[in-house]
Amino acid sequence: MVLQGQSEIKLLNTIAEKIDLLEKIGIQNLVIHPFDEKFSNLTAEEFVKSVLVEKFHIQKIIIGHDHRFGKNRSANIEDLVAFGKQYHFEVEQISVQEVDAVSVSSTKIRKALLDGNVALANDYLGYDYSLSGTIVKGKQLGRTIGFPTANLKIEENYKLIPKNGVYIVKSTLNQKTVFGMMNIGFNPTVAGENLTIEIHYFNFDANLYEQEISVSILSYLRPEQKFGSVTLLKEQLQKDAAAALRYFN
Fold it and tell me: How far apart are CA 131 and CA 58, in angstroms?
């Protein structure tokens, strides 16, 4: 995104989401180094010497088996091991991670999410994929048919949004776990024009406007559909709610 402008690749987590995940697994100190063109031009040895050794006084580094670093991604794990011997730090290599004999990669996780296969994506991730953002005012059409929704606005345009459709979700709101269902799409029944992310929470009634929330995606229910009337849409939403409640039970 820095070196090539508008990259089409979408990321699984925003910086804020990465921070939250790292904090949950017990990381006590985190440094996010700004990545810019100047930093990208550091050779592998310049990076090791000026950042890892001179700035962090590194004793040990734990890193993925396929990690590459340095200008033009020129160095690999073998180079890092050699630098470790030269500058006196230990290198521990993380081998490829497998789930059911399939090697896990961000590419496979992205494909699963874009296919609506949330269960597989969550299995690969080891946690529930989530969307984080701010609740903003929508058209408020949902409340007129008994399904009020919270409209999620995600600021980061690089965040991967799963396939359009209806999902079973949960959130922690006001320190309580709340369950619900979420629609990603264009609301074709009411002639929607923009992609929206709308969440209907069960047994929850509170003002969430301008609050920042995180939505964990648990399961995919169905693709987005255009119904012949709002009445038919309401009937389908009732079926979706029943299916979601069966899932939670």
Answer: 34
The ranges of the chain annotated as CATH 2.40.30.30 are: 128-248
Taking CB atoms within 8 Å and a gap of at least 24, the contacts of 1-10 are 1/158, 2/35, 2/36, 2/37, 2/40, 3/37, 3/40, 7/158, 9/158, 10/110, 10/158, 10/159, 10/160, 10/161
- Closest Cα to residue 243, out of 216, 210, 221, 213? 221
* Cα-trace Rg, the chain: 22
* CATH code, 128-248: 2.40.30.30
- Tell me how far apart the alpha carbons of residues 109 and 120 are, in angstroms, rounded to a whole number: 8
pLDDT tens column, 141-178: 777 788 889 999 999 999 999 999 999 999 999 889 99
Angle between helices 118-125 and 106-114 (to 10 degrees): 160
The reported pTM is 0.86
